[in-house]
Amino acid sequence: MGRTITIIPGDGIGPEVTRATVAVLKAAGAELDYDERLAGVAALDKLNDPLPHETLDSIRANRVVLKGPLTTPSGTGFRSVNVAIRKEFDLFANVRPVRTILPGGRYEDIDLVLIRENTEGLYVGVEHYIGMEGDPRAAAESVMIITRFGAERISRYAFEYAQRLGRRKVTLAHKANILKYTQGLFLEVAHRVAQEYPSIEWEDRIIDATAMQLVLDPYRFDVLVMENMFGDILSDLMAGLVGGLGFAPAGNIGDEAAMFEAVHGSAPDIAGKGVANPTGLLLSACMLLDHVGQQEAGDRIRVAVDHVVRTGAARTVDMGGHTSTREFTDALVRALG
Ligand code: NAI
Ligand code: MG
Known about the structure:
α5 (about 150-165) runs parallel beside α6 and α10 (about 295-310) crosses α11 (about 325-335). The chain folds into two domains: about 1-110 and about 240-335, Isopropylmalate Dehydrogenase, CATH 3.40.718; about 120-225, no CATH class. The strands form two sheets. The chain has a ten-stranded mixed sheet, sandwiched between helices. A two-stranded antiparallel ribbon has the order 6-7. Helix content is about 40%, strand content about 20%. The model has no long low-confidence stretch (mean pLDDT about 95). By secondary structure, the protein is α/β, with parallel strands linked by helices. The protein binds 1,4-dihydronicotinamide adenine dinucleotide (NAI) and magnesium ion. 1,4-dihydronicotinamide adenine dinucleotide binds near residues 13, 71, 268 and 269.
């Protein structure tokens, strides 16, 4: 009997990369049982609801979810199911490790982690138009909300994470020079939390300078923590440092539940063709294994992925190879055998 988790195959390439991931998890000896549920377009088609109650109930009971990408219609249609799940379970920490796997990119041996506050900042949805002189949309206003509670729990999460994983340094990226209240409060709180972790090096940097330094010399960083929108932008920049979305995993962590997913979307352009790269979801599953105390199985998978990709034993199309999802999966299973 393994640990039961909720698994949501998702839309587009979701079912393909989920199938591949489950096969590799099995080969690595992960002790997991899967409670498969629907969300997104797949759920809308079958159950007439993009986020059915039974899916939420399953997450509530199992507290851990592995989720494939979900298609979100732009402009019209239902609201993002990803955002709804994050909100429902208060998944406040978005954790995105970025590591070089495919050699020959812009940088070798990148190993960074971005920890993004996932619930506050400009993304709280407090927005409105202001009418003037007969124009109902003469101006628009979005409110950035930072709370002491929110800044403290994400800062503490970053330091606890660094401590647990033996990381040397935490950098807070902020804009407290201009946004003296919101960003100022975040900086003040993070600075105070940092004093409780004297063994971990600590620095704060202005967000724009951080963006430039990440491009010029990413090795000077280790763990980075920041508020919601800055984290949204820099996490994509950092994925770019190691060749893009194909290798990027993510965890959304709260006190009640945790959701692990690849950073990429449902890739409708290649869905059903059997060519998708499952590595993003697979590395997310490794984070899930760490989270449920099965780190050994996760480490075995990470070693296998490194081996298969670095030696060129198998590479999917997005890596410049021509291996199908299935062949790539088989190569991983063989490497684990
Ligand atoms: P996308 O990440 O799905 O695709 C961007 C490009 O990368 C495409 O050319 C795609 O073929 C390629 N790609 C993505 N993942 C790949 C993989 N594993 N292997 C090989 N190639 C891969 O982004 P896009 O096209 O902007 O979004 C498509 C849909 O996905 C939208 O409905 C969007 O809302 C949704 N989405 C969902 C996310 C989630 O569930 N967490 C995250 C991002 C987007
Ligand atoms: Mg984003």
